[in-house]
Amino acid sequence: QSALTQPASVSGSPGQSITISCTGTSSDVGSYNLVSWYQQHPGKAPKLMIYEVSKRPSGLSNRFSGSKSGNTASLTISGLQTEDEADYYCCSYVGSGAVFGGGTKLTVL
Amino acid sequence: QVQLVESGGGVVQPGRSLRSLRLSCAASEFTFNSYGMHWVRQAPGKGLEWVALIWYDGTNKYYADSVKGRFTISRDNSKNTLYLEMNSPRADDTAVYYCAKDRCSGGSCYQFDYWGQGTLVTVSS
Fold it and tell me: Does B19 score more than 70 pLDDT?
């Protein structure tokens, strides 16, 4: 189970939008809609941000959205805020297991 | 509010079969026996790695290739507690170990809606 591929870092200014990609294969991201995204601040536990490719947990800001095309899933954050600065991880079901991406560090300039 | 509290981390010597470590995760504020539970780990300065899943009733268990045959996941629904027994530990098992609740009841959809605060396991002589 190879890790999903994410950019190591992305950055944006407050108010802007950014997109983080997550590339897998036809055995994981491309085959299932069980893609999720997690936000992790330093020293904290991860937090679920998106599940089933594009659904938001109750109470989560609609500034966060997800999508998928073929073997690549994407997380978009609009109206960037300073508190969005964190590490973001994608995750996909991969047949009796799960595989995470390597993580993307988001810097809000 | 759902609570997951891990314990049992510490320092364990590498590779010795008589040396093992058992992690625990105490769950509260949800119907524990209705949800699959996972262990996910994070090596220092590294990304997340899924480790293991146990179904809501304990009948099915799945493991990452990296721990298969060495780690055992279990649960006690009467105590609302999840466990991970780590045998034959290796240096690359050093990580913060998180327990995480599956979002879906019954089987598993491999999406983690609540996480504990983590417990650090260090494999070192």
Answer: no
